[in-house]
Design goal:
The structure holds 2 protein chains of 2 kinds.
Chain A lengths: L1 H12 L6 H28 L4 H24 L7 H18 L7 H18 L3 H28 L11 H23 L1 H10 L49 H9 L6 E4 L9 E4 L13 E2 L21 E4 L4 E8 L1 E2 L3 E3 L13 E5 L6 E5 L10 E8 L13 E6 L9 E2 L5 E2 L11 E7 L2 E2 L6 E2 L22 H10 L7 H12 L4 E2 L12 H9 L1 E2 L1 H14 L4 E9 L4 E2 L4 E4 L4 E8 L5 E4 L14 H18 L1 H16 L1 H16 L4 H18 L10 H5 L7 H20 L10 H9 L2 H14 L1 H4 L2
Parallel strand pairs in A: 17-18
Antiparallel strand pairs in A: 1-2, 3-7, 4-10, 4-21, 5-19, 6-7, 8-9, 9-11, 10-14, 11-14, 12-13, 15-16, 19-22, 20-21, 22-23
Chain B lengths: L19 H14 L4 H12 L3 E5 L6 H11 L4 E5 L6 H5 E6 L4 E6 L6 E5 L6 H13 L1 E4 L2 E4 L5 E6 L12 H4 L2 E5 L6 H11 L15 H12 L5 H16 L3 E3 L3 H17 L7 H6 L1 H6 L3 E2 L4 H10 L7
Parallel strand pairs in B: 1-8, 1-9, 2-5, 5-8
Antiparallel strand pairs in B: 3-4, 6-7, 10-11
Helix pairs in contact in B: 1-2, 1-3, 2-10, 9-10
The chains are: A alpha+beta, B alpha/beta.
C-alpha cells in the first residue's frame, strides 16, 4: 500500500516539477535509505530493546529531509516545488520512516493509515489518468488488506443476538463534535481573525498574505489569470464570454516602457558670427507616435522604471499561450533600415500579401481561417497548435508564429474579419484592438534552422532569397566595416543556411552581452557598426538589427521582427500554459527564402527558436549524438574514470578485504577481547564479501566450522579454540586465560577471501542445499 | 541450516570437572546399551541432568524400554515400571492405603512413583484419569493421597514411552501433561554398522542377562543436577531464549506457544547441554541444539513437520553475536 501511495504521489508530482529526473532520483534515494535503515534496524532490535529514541530520530530525520532539501535547492538557485508537494513528500517520508522502523512493534498499521492520506492527497492533485488508476488500485488493495487483517475478528464476532440500547458514549461524542463544528463555523464567519488563521493553513499560497514563488495552487492564486477585484473579466479567458474593454497600455507603450522612447532627430540651425560652424544636432525632444508598428528606432533614451508599490505583485499577463514553447509571436516586421530606424515595408511592396490566400473553412465543427502561401507544407502532421488567451493586448494585430496556416476565433466565421498587413502580419481590420479574453487558436508550422549546425529543419527551403528580391535595402546603410566583419565571420562557410547559422552563433557565442539598459549614442548613424565593433553590448533589438545587417551584407534578405517571446521559464506546470508579460516584448531577425517564407533567426543569447517536434527516431539520434559529442569532448577523463570504475568493480572485494585486514591488524595490538572481536568481524566481513554471509539466525560455530579449510585436525582444533574463546567472551564469564594473538592470526590466515570464495564455488557445484544457507 | 537430531554435534568435553567421570560413565553405559545413537544418548543425559522427564515417541522394538531400563540401572536408584493399559487405576501408580488387620490401622502401600526412575510404558494407553495421577508427581515430585502429601525421591525421573502408530484404544496426552515432560525424543532405526554390531554382541548372550551396572547413586546424581543448575546463562542468551519463546507464540501455525514453564525447561536443558559440552556457560548453540526435542513435546498447532516448524522459529530470531 505504501508503494502504491508513493507511486500515486510520483505520478501527481513529476509533471509539476521542473527537473523530474531529480525528483525521481530523490525518491529512489529515499527508498534505498528506507531499505538500508530497515535492514539495520531489524538487526538492532533483537539485540537492543532500548531503541525508541533511535526510532524517533530516524522518523524525524525522514520527515525533515524534504524541507531541508527544498531549502537547499532554493538556496542554490535551482528553484523550488510547490509547498503542498513538499508537505506530501514529508508525509510520504513519515510513512517510509515508519516502515524503516517496522521492526518496532505497532508502527506498521500507522504507516498504512498514513499511506491512505498520502494516496488521497495525490489523488486530489493529480490530473493524469494513470494517477486515478493507481488510486483505484490502492483502494482495492486497501480493502483487501482490511479484510485480511480483520478477518479473524469478523469471523469470530457474528452476533448471535442483538440488544437495542442508546449508545451514550458515541451519542455524546457525536453531539460534542456537532457543537464544536457549529462553534467553529460561527467563529469563522463571525470575524476576520479566524478566516486569516484558516488561510494560514495553506501556507505559501497566499492565504496568509504571503505567497511562495513556487506555489502552484491555493487561495492566493491571483496570478493565474486575472485580478478579481480590479478587473471585471475575473472569470477568465473563456470562449463563451463577451468581449470586454480594458484601459491597459497599448502595445506601443509596452515597447516604449521596455526599451525607452525613441529619439527624434531635430536639426537646428543657428548663426554665430565669425565662427565657421553653422549646424548642430539636438536630441532634446522626444517624438510621439500614435500608431503601433509604424517604425522602430534603434536609438532610444533610457527611461526611469516606474516605481511599483510594495503591495504590487508581478505585472499582469498580456496574454497566455497554451502549446509548445519557446515561441516567437510576431506582431510587426520592418524591412527598411537607414542605420538608425527600421521602417515597415510600404503597402505597395511586393511583400504585402505575397502569394497569400485567406479562406474561411466552415466545413469543420469550428470555423478556421485557412492561410495558404507558397512554400507551405501540406503535411498536417507538421502543424503546431497554440492557443492564445488574450488579456490586455491593445492592438488589432494577432500575435502569431512565423508560419501560421490557420486561425480560429469562436463565432468568427467570415474571412473578411481578418486581413494580412503589408508587413506580413495577420490583423483584424476595422477593430481598434483585440478584445480582452479573446481566445485565439493558431495553427502553424514550426520551421527553423538547427542551432550551430545550420541544418534546416521543418521543411525549410534550402535556398535563400537573394538580396533585393523583396525588401528595400539601403545599401549605403551598411558600412564597409560591417561588410568586412560579415565576410570575416563567414570565411570558409558555405553560402546559405550555414552562413546564417555562423552569424547567429557568433553573436550568441559570448562575445556580445545582452544588456537591456545599454543604448546606442544619440548621434550614432550606424547602430549596427557601433554595436558590433565598439560597444558589443545592448538589448535584443541591437542583436537583431546587427544580425539583419550582417546577413544583408552577405547578400541575404533579412528583416527585423518585433513581437513577443513566450519564455519557457514562465510555463506554468499546473495550467499548462505560458504567461506572456510586457517584459517579454522581443525583437529578432527573419531571413527570406526563395519560396517566400521568412524563417525566424534569433541572435540574442538566451532566446531559442521553436524547433519542429522531433520524431522518436530523431530524438533518439539527437540524444545519441549529444552523448557522442560529450564523450568526444571529454574522452580522456571519461576513459580514465571508466577504467577506474571497472578496476574498482572487479577488485572491489579485494580492495575492501585489504581495508578490513588493515583495520584488523591495527586492532591486534589491543586486549585479547579486542583481538577476538576484531577477528570475528574480519571473518564476518570476508564471508560477506565471498557471498557466504552468516545468516542472522546462525551461530558462529554452526556457520564457520563447516567452512574450515581441510587442514587436518590441527586446523579444526585452532578454529575450535578460537570459537570457544569467542563464545566464552560473548556469552560466558571473562576470558578464562590470557589469549595470545596466535589463534586470531591463524584463523585470519586460514579463512582468507580466496578460500571462502572457493568454498562457495564448491558448494554451488556440489551441494545446492549448502548454497541455500 | 536445518536443525535435526542427527545434526546435533557430539563433542568430547574440553574441560574437566569433578563430576566428569560420572558423566562419562553414564554416557558410556547408555552408548553400550543403545548402539549408534550417540545424539539420543546426549539428549537423554541432558534431560537427566536438567531434572526433566522424557517422553519417547517411537515405533515398537527400537529400544525405548531398553534405554529406560539401562538409564535406571546406571543412575543406581530404585527402578519401577508401569505398563499402562486402559484399566490401570491412579492408585496403581501412586499407591493406596491398606487396612492392616493385625495392627488394626491403615498402612500406605507405595506405588511405582516412589522410585528413582519410573518407566511408564505406552503411557497413552492409560485413561486420562490415570495419566493425571502423574501430574503432581512429575511437576512437584510429591503425591497427595487421602489428603496427605508424600515426598518422592529427589532424583525422581519419569521415562514414558508411547507408540505413535496405534491409535485404537489410545488416549492422547493432554497439553498440561506434555508440558511436564522436558523433551520428546525419537530413537529411530540404527544404521547398518550399529545393527551388525548389535547382532554380533547378542550371539551367545542369554536373554535378560545384559544388565548395566550403577555408575552413580541418587545422591551423586542430585549433586550433579545441582551443579548443572549453576551453569551461567548470559543476559544476551536469556534474551535470545525469550525472543524464541515469543516467536513460538506469534507463529501462525502454532495454536499453543511455549509456556513460561517451557522456557524454564529449555534453559535448564540448555544448561545441561553446555555442561555436557564441557562449558560453564550457555551459548546459543546449546539453545539451538536442544530446541527440537524441547519444543516438539509442547507446541500444538496445525503443522505437518515439527522439524520444519522449529527451524522456522529458529530462523526468525537473530542470534546475539556482536
Amino acid at each position: 500500500m505504501a508503494a502504491l501511495a508513493t507511486l500515486a504521489l510520483e505520478i501527481a508530482r513529476l509533471p509539476e516539477i521542473r527537473r523530474p529526473w531529480l525528483g525521481l532520483l530523490a525518491t529512489a534515494l529515499t527508498l534505498a535509505a528506507t531499505t538500508a535503515v530497515a535492514a539495520w534496524f531489524r538487526r538492532q532490535v533483537p539485540a537492543n530493546r532500548q531503541l525508541s529514541a533511535v526510532a524517533i530520530l530516524i522518523v524525524v530525520g525522514f520527515v525533515a529531509a524534504p524541507f531541508v532539501a527544498e531549502s537547499g535547492a532554493r538556496w542554490a538557485g535551482w528553484g523550488g516545488i510547490s509547498p503542498e508537494f513538499v508537505q506530501l513528500v514529508a508525509l510520504r517520508n513519515f510513512m517510509l520512516g515508519l516502515i524503516a522502523v517496522a521492526a518496532w512493534p505497532g508502527v506498521l498499521p500507522l504507516s498504512c493509515a498514513l499511506s491512505l492520506f498520502l494516496a488521497l492527497g495525490a489523488l486530489a492533485l493529480t490530473t493524469h489518468w494513470l494517477g486515478y488508476g493507481v488510486a483505484l488500485l490502492y483502494g482495492l488493495v486497501g480493502i483487501w488488506w482490511l479484510m485480511g487483517s480483520s478477518w479473524e475478528r469478523l469471523e469470530g464476532r457474528f452476533a448471535c443476538q442483538t440488544k437495542r440500547e442508546i449508545p451514550l458514549a458515541a451519542g455524546g461524542g457525536l453531539a460534542a463534535i456537532v457543537l464544536l463544528g457549529v462553534a467553529a463555523s460561527v467563529f469563522a464567519w463571525g470575524g476576520t481573525s479566524s478566516t486569516h488563521a484558516i488561510g494560514g493553513f495553506f501556507w505559501g499560497s497566499g492565504g496568509d498574505r504571503w505567497n511562495d514563488p513556487a506555489a502552484a495552487r491555493g487561495v492566493g492564486d491571483v496570478d493565474a489569470l486575472v485580478a478579481a477585484q480590479d478587473f471585471a473579466a475575473s472569470f477568465g479567458a473563456v470562449e463563451s464570454e463577451l468581449f470586454l474593454d480594458s484601459d491597459q497600455p497599448t502595445l506601443y507603450d509596452v515597447f516604449n516602457d521596455t526599451f525607452g522612447e525613441p529619439l527624434a532627430k531635430r536639426e537646428q540651425e543657428r548663426t554665430i558670427g565669425l565662427v565657421d560652424q553653422n549646424t548642430q544636432e539636438s536630441t532634446s525632444r522626444t517624438a510621439t507616435t500614435s500608431e503601433a508598428g509604424r517604425e522602430f528606432s534603434t536609438v532610444r533614451r533610457r527611461t526611469q522604471r516606474r516605481q511599483q508599490s510594495l503591495a504590487n505583485r508581478d505585472a499582469g499577463a498580456l496574454f497566455y499561450v497554451a502549446g509548445r514553447v519557446p515561441l516567437h509571436l510576431r506582431l510587426s516586421t520592418f524591412s527598411k533600415f537607414d542605420g538608425r530606424d527600421w521602417l515597415p515595408a510600404p503597402p505597395t511592396s511586393s511583400l504585402a500579401g505575397r502569394d497569400l490566400v485567406l479562406r474561411m473553412d466552415n466545413s469543420a465543427e469550428r470555423p478556421w481561417l485557412e492561410i495558404h502561401r507558397a512554400g507551405q507544407s501540406d503535411s498536417a502532421s507538421e502543424d503546431e497548435l497554440h492557443t492564445l488567451r488574450v488579456m490586455n493586448l491593445k492592438t488589432r494585430r494577432l500575435p502569431t508564429p512565423a508560419h501560421p496556416t490557420g486561425v480560429h476565433i469562436d463565432k468568427l466565421d467570415r474571412a473578411d474579419f481578418f486581413a494580412w498587413t503589408a508587413d506580413d502580419v495577420l490583423e483584424m481590420p476595422g477593430r481598434g484592438r483585440i478584445p480582452p479574453l479573446t481566445v485565439v487558436h493558431v495553427r502553424s508550422q514550426a520551421r527553423a534552422i538547427a542551432p550551430g549546425s545550420g541544418e534546416s529543419a521543418g521543411g525549410v527551403p534550402s535556398g535563400l532569397s537573394p538580396q533585393g528580391a523583396a525588401t528595400t535595402v539601403e545599401e549605403s546603410s551598411i558600412s564597409a566595416e560591417v561588410r568586412a566583419l560579415a565576410a570575416q565571420w563567414t570565411a570558409g562557410v558555405p553560402r546559405g543556411w550555414p552562413q546564417v547559422a555562423a552569424i547567429c552563433q557568433r553573436l550568441r557565442g559570448g562575445e556580445f552581452v545582452v544588456d537591456r539598459e545599454a543604448r546606442a549614442p544619440t548621434d550614432c548613424e550606424d547602430v549596427a557598426a557601433h554595436f558590433l565593433l565598439e560597444s558589443k553590448r545592448g538589448p535584443d533589438y541591437l542583436f537583431a538589427t546587427s544580425a539583419a545587417t550582417l546577413l544583408r551584407a552577405l547578400g541575404y534578405e533579412a528583416r527585423l521582427a518585433t513581437g513577443f517571446y513566450a519564455h519557457p521559464e514562465r510555463f506554468d506546470l499546473v495550467s499548462r500554459q505560458t504567461k506572456v508579460l510586457a517584459a517579454d516584448a522581443h525583437c529578432w531577425a527573419e531571413v527570406d527564402t526563395v519560396s517566400g517564407t521568412w524563417i525566424t533567426v534569433d541572435p540574442t543569447p538566451g532566446y531559442e527558436v521553436l524547433l519542429p517536434r522531433p520524431t522518436f527516431a530523431q530524438a533518439v539520434l539527437g540524444a545519441l549524438r549529444s552523448c557522442v559529442q560529450a564523450v568526444a569532448r571529454n574522452w580522456l577523463p571519461i576513459v580514465l574514470v571508466a577504467c577506474l570504475v571497472v578496476v574498482v568493480a572487479i577488485l572491489r572485494a579485494r580492495i575492501l578485504d585489504a581495508c578490513y585486514t588493515l583495520l584488523w591488524l591495527v586492532s591486534l595490538r589491543g586486549s585479547p577481547a579486542t583481538r577476538l572481536l576484531a577477528t570475528v568481524r574480519l571473518l564476518e566481513r570476508r564471508a560477506r564479501l565471498a557471498g557466504l554471509a552468516r545468516p542472522a539466525h546462525a551461530t558462529l560455530r554452526s556457520w564457520y566450522l563447516p567452512l574450515a579449510p581441510n587442514g587436518g585436525a590441527s586446523c579444526r582444533g585452532e578454529l575450535e579454540e578460537f570459537l570457544g574463546a569467542t563464545a566464552a567472551l560473548l556469552y560466558g564469564s571473562p576470558l578464562p586465560h590470557a589469549l595470545s594473538a596466535a589463534p586470531c592470526r591463524q584463523v585470519a590466515a586460514r579463512f582468507t577471501l580466496t578460500h571462502l570464495r572457493a568454498t562457495r564455488q564448491r558448494s554451488r557445484l556440489h551441494s545446492p542445499e549448502y548454497s541455500q544457507r | 541450516m536445518t536443525i535435526t537430531l542427527e545434526s546435533i554435534p557430539v563433542v568430547a568435553p574440553a574441560r574437566q570437572c569433578e563430576h566428569q567421570p560420572a558423566i562419562d560413565g553414564l554416557r558410556a553405559a547408555l552408548n553400550r546399551t543403545l548402539l549408534g545413537k550417540e545424539q539420543v544418548v546426549e539428549l537423554v543425559l541432558a534431560c537427566l541432568l536438567a531434572r526433566g522427564h522424557i517422553l519417547f515417541d517411537d515405533l515398537p522394538g527400537l529400544g525405548k524400554t531398553t534405554l529406560a531400563k539401562a538409564l535406571a540401572a546406571a543412575v543406581g536408584g530404585r527402578f519401577a515400571r508401569v505398563q499402562c493399559t486402559p484399566d490401570l487405576l491412579p492408585t496403581d501408580i501412586t499407591g493406596f492405603n491398606v487396612f492392616n488387620a493385625q495392627q488394626r490401622e491403615f498402612e500406605f502401600q507405595e506405588g511405582p512413583v516412589f522410585s528413582d526412575v519410573l518407566l511408564a510404558d505406552e503411557i497413552n494407553r492409560a485413561t486420562p484419569r490415570t495419566q493425571s495421577a502423574l501430574f503432581e508427581a512429575m511437576a512437584e515430585r510429591q503425591v497427595t493421597i487421602d489428603s496427605r502429601t508424600r515426598q518422592l525421591s529427589a532424583s525422581f525421573f519419569v521415562i514414558a514411552t508411547q507408540n505413535p502408530v496405534e491409535s485404537h484404544g489410545a488416549y492422547p496426552l493432554p497439553e498440561a501433561q506434555l508440558d511436564r515432560f522436558a523433551m520428546k525424543l525419537r530413537i529411530g532405526y540404527p544404521d547398518r554398522l550399529s545393527e551388525l554390531e548389535m547382532l554380533a554382541a547378542h550371539v551367545g548372550r542369554e536373554r535378560g542377562r545384559d544388565t548395566v551396572a550403577a555408575v552413580v547413586n541418587p545422591v551423586q546424581l542430585s549433586r550433579l543436577q545441582e551443579h548443572v543448575a549453576r551453569v551461567a546463562v548470559n543476559q544476551a542468551v536469556r534474551e535470545y531464549l525469550v525472543d524464541l519463546a515469543a516467536a513460538t507464540r506469534g507463529h501462525r501455525d502454532i495454536a499453543l506457544g511455549l509456556s513460561p514453564r517451557g522456557v524454564l525447561t529449555w534453559q535448564r536443558v540448555a544448561q545441561a547441554r553446555a555442561h555436557l559440552q564441557g562449558r560453564d556457560f550457555v551459548t546459543p548453540d546449546d539453545i539451538q541444539d536442544v530446541a527440537l526435542p524441547v519444543l516438539e513435546v509442547r507446541l500444538r498447532g496445525e503443522f505437518s513437520s515439527a522439524v520444519v516448524l522449529v527451524n522456522q522459529i529458529l530462523e526468525s530470531v537473530r542470534v546475539p553475536v556482536l
